[in-house]
Amino acid sequence: MAKISIIGSGNVGATCANAIAHMRFASEIVLLDIKEGISEGKAIDMMQTAKMYNFDSSIRGVTNDYSATAGSDVVIVTSGIPRKPGMSREELVGVNAGIVHDVVSSALEHSPDTIFIIITNPMDTMAYLTYKVAGLPKNRVIGMGGQLDSSRFNYYLSQALNCAPSDVEGIVLGGHGDTTMIPLIDKATYKCQPVSSLLSKEVADKVVADTMTGGATLTKLIGTSAWYAPGAATAVMVKSIILDEKKVFPCSVYLDGEYGHEDVCIGVPVILGKNGCEKIIEMDLNENEKELFAKSVTAVKNVNKILNEDKVIKD
Ligand code: APR
Fold first, then answer.
1. Of 42, 61, 113, 199, which residue is least crowded by CB atoms under 10 Å?
2. In 3D, which of 129, 153, 127 has the Cα closest to residue 266?
């Protein structure tokens, strides 16, 4: 049975652990945090719901003890600071790069065969950093952002169409940033009908804009970044890996030529199975989408440059 470790037991990490326990595919979930006691406390709190929710996963919390994460099938990285109202995800790079560098190195020592899922923002840059630091094959480093952004896209589409979110199908590619993500509105459908035939251009443009600022809207409302949808988005990705479901998710993965780009981690549709990212699906993008994707790559690469400037990774 599967062992999942989650580094960072804050809002996103703990919610993710809870979602995984409720999905019942993991035998062992380890929560690790640098802050004394937080993981232990949250793990016990969740375990005290096991009988009520009828799950059998063992959830254990530890303070910075990586030996407890040994032999993890998947390591989820959420450690770092979240944004505050008015901040962009990219502004977090300086602090979070050091944290992600250290936790990835420590986790890898105890779980050399693991698959990493990176959530810490700016996520595409943190996934790139992980790929460079860990030296793993590209299928084993996966950034979570596109699945969350796509869920937000589907939510806003369903609001505009006054329908159930499960009846719409929309996907967001590109970077996981307010200005870099690309909700593919021309490809979105409601029960096989293109939404472009159901929504005015004005409403469709608003859906796209609301999706792009979806995280910032919640940060403004809550005072810190969101956690329910990020936790759930990660849990379904991990489930597809552990149960080898081979479902398609938009994920940030290392490109070396796909979509005409290289040396960048950015959101594209991938198949997730027991080997992690088993295949990158090359969608047929129209000229406008290709142009937006190229701009998104450039923007993400510009943030990645900070890693070299700060000497977090070497050229
Ligand atoms: N090792 C382990 N845990 C750490 C470390 C470290 N070196 N540094 C920080 N942490 C922990 C903090 O102690 C905190 O408990 O990471 C946790 C982060 O939790 P929150 O502050 O609640 O942040 P959260 O909302 O969960 O977001 C985490 O995910 O969505 C992104 O932008 C978000 O980068 C942020 C990350």
1. 113
2. 127
Segments forming the whole domain that contains residue 54:
2-144
61 lines ligand 1 (CB under 6 A): no
**Is the minimum distance from the CB of 66 to ligand 1 under 6 angstroms?**
no
Cα of 158 from ligand 1 centre, angstroms: 31
**Residue of 22, 101, 110, 176 marked catalytic:** 176
Beta strands in the chain (DSSP E): 2-7, 26-33, 58-63, 74-77, 115-118, 141-143, 168-169, 172-174, 181-183, 189-190, 193-194, 247-256, 262-273, 276-280
Quote the number of domains for the chain: 1
* pLDDT tens for the chain, residues 1 to 315: 899 999 999 999 999 999 999 999 999 999 999 999 999 999 999 999 999 999 999 999 999 999 999 999 999 999 999 888 998 888 899 899 999 999 999 999 999 999 999 999 999 999 999 999 999 999 999 999 999 999 999 999 999 999 999 999 999 999 999 999 999 999 999 999 999 999 999 999 999 999 999 999 999 999 999 999 999 999 999 999 999 999 999 999 999 999 999 999 999 999 999 999 999 999 999 999 999 999 999 999 999 999 988 777 765
- Ligand 1: does its nearest atom lie under 6 Å from the Cβ of 38? yes
Residue from 36, 79, 117 whose mutation best tests the ligand 1 pocket (most atoms within 8 A of CB): 79
Asked about 176 being catalytic, the answer comes back as: yes
- Return the ligand 1 atom nearest residue 119 CA: 29
CATH number, position 94: 3.40.50.720
Phi and psi, residue 164, nearest 5°? -75, 140
34 lines ligand 1 (CB under 6 A): yes
Q: Whose alpha carbon is nearest atom 29 of ligand 1?
A: 120
Give the atom of ligand 1 at the shortest distance from the alpha carbon of 120. Answer: 34
Handedness of CA 274, 277, 281, 285 (dihedral sign): positive
Structural domain includes residue 102: yes
How far is the C-alpha of 184 from the C-alpha of 219, rounded, in Å?
24
Does residue 11 belong to any structural domain of this protein?
A: yes
Nearest ligand 1 atom, CA 126: 34
